[in-house]
Amino acid sequence: MLYQVVIPAAGQGKRMKAGMNKLLIELQHQPVIIHTLKVFEQDDDCRGIIMVVNEAERPLFVELLKKFGIKKVISIVSGGIERQHSVYNGLQAVKEGEIVLIHDGARPFIRLEKIHELVKEAQEHGAAIPAVPMKDTVKKVRNGMAEETVERSSLWAVQTPQAFRVSLVLEAHKRAQEEGYIGTDDASLVERMGKKVKIVEGDYRNIKLTTPDDLLFAEAILSLKEAR
Ligand code: CTP
Ligand code: MG
């Protein structure tokens, strides 16, 4: 089943504190964004990649695509202030087709089997997202004091890629845009339309590189991959 993928890469990476877009940090001689792009480059089911970048960084990304032989990027569009604005812009460049994935440039360890499972479930349910059960106990905290312990068994941490029928996610983003609503992921925009979102069990290794510690985990995951 063929799909297109939108990859938002227009963030600033503030929490990584690297003084630059974290997607340009090199892991084993390759920028993070290239690790991510290569997964889709190597997937025969991927019809095309739409990248979302900061205008100022466009030449840099174009150069990287050339250097690392990435050929499936069919369009590069400008990012917005929030991730949601960036994704909205990316979705405008999606060609006609059934399924689109939205995947953070900062998640380089997504596996092909999981992508294919998500595409299949999105085809059936309209929307499908990967999530893993929370390992830690989660509390609501106010002014440094525990206020409430949230029931853990119903809590799942959500990842990307999030997979959707093209028409559904376009409509969800259009509505959110019109109503000035900002959600923390794309599926939440579909949920607020009253539509169901299928949860697919994710992989704890599909981490998002967010803070400097995540680079240590990333190196470990990469060295395991090499050993295989
Ligand atoms: N992103 C984007 N446009 C934005 C903000 C984020 O395209 N305005 C992208 C990032 O490049 C990243 C993904 O969305 O690939 C997930 O966002 P996040 O992990 O929050 O990255 P940053 O926003 O770059 O990091 P921070 O929040 O620490 O500044
Ligand atoms: Mg961010």
UniProtKB/TrEMBL annotation:
<dbReference type="InterPro" id="IPR050088">
    <property type="entry name" value="IspD/TarI_cytidylyltransf_bact"/>
</dbReference>
<feature type="site" description="Positions MEP for the nucleophilic attack">
    <location>
        <position position="208"/>
    </location>
</feature>
<comment type="function">
    <text>Catalyzes the formation of 4-diphosphocytidyl-2-C-methyl-D-erythritol from CTP and 2-C-methyl-D-erythritol 4-phosphate (MEP).</text>
</comment>
<dbReference type="InterPro" id="IPR018294">
    <property type="entry name" value="ISPD_synthase_CS"/>
</dbReference>
<protein>
    <recommendedName>
        <fullName>2-C-methyl-D-erythritol 4-phosphate cytidylyltransferase</fullName>
        <ecNumber>2.7.7.60</ecNumber>
    </recommendedName>
</protein>
<dbReference type="GO" id="GO:0050518">
    <property type="term" value="F:2-C-methyl-D-erythritol 4-phosphate cytidylyltransferase activity"/>
</dbReference>
<feature type="site" description="Transition state stabilizer">
    <location>
        <position position="22"/>
    </location>
</feature>
<keyword id="KW-0808">Transferase</keyword>
<dbReference type="InterPro" id="IPR001228">
    <property type="entry name" value="IspD"/>
</dbReference>
<feature type="site" description="Transition state stabilizer">
    <location>
        <position position="15"/>
    </location>
</feature>
<dbReference type="InterPro" id="IPR034683">
    <property type="entry name" value="IspD/TarI"/>
</dbReference>
<keyword id="KW-0414">Isoprene biosynthesis</keyword>
<dbReference type="InterPro" id="IPR029044">
    <property type="entry name" value="Nucleotide-diphossugar_trans"/>
</dbReference>
<keyword id="KW-0548">Nucleotidyltransferase</keyword>
<dbReference type="GO" id="GO:0019288">
    <property type="term" value="P:isopentenyl diphosphate biosynthetic process, methylerythritol 4-phosphate pathway"/>
</dbReference>
<comment type="similarity">
    <text>Belongs to the IspD/TarI cytidylyltransferase family. IspD subfamily.</text>
</comment>
<feature type="site" description="Positions MEP for the nucleophilic attack">
    <location>
        <position position="152"/>
    </location>
</feature>
<comment type="pathway">
    <text>Isoprenoid biosynthesis; isopentenyl diphosphate biosynthesis via DXP pathway; isopentenyl diphosphate from 1-deoxy-D-xylulose 5-phosphate: step 2/6.</text>
</comment>
<dbReference type="Pfam" id="PF01128">
    <property type="entry name" value="IspD"/>
</dbReference>
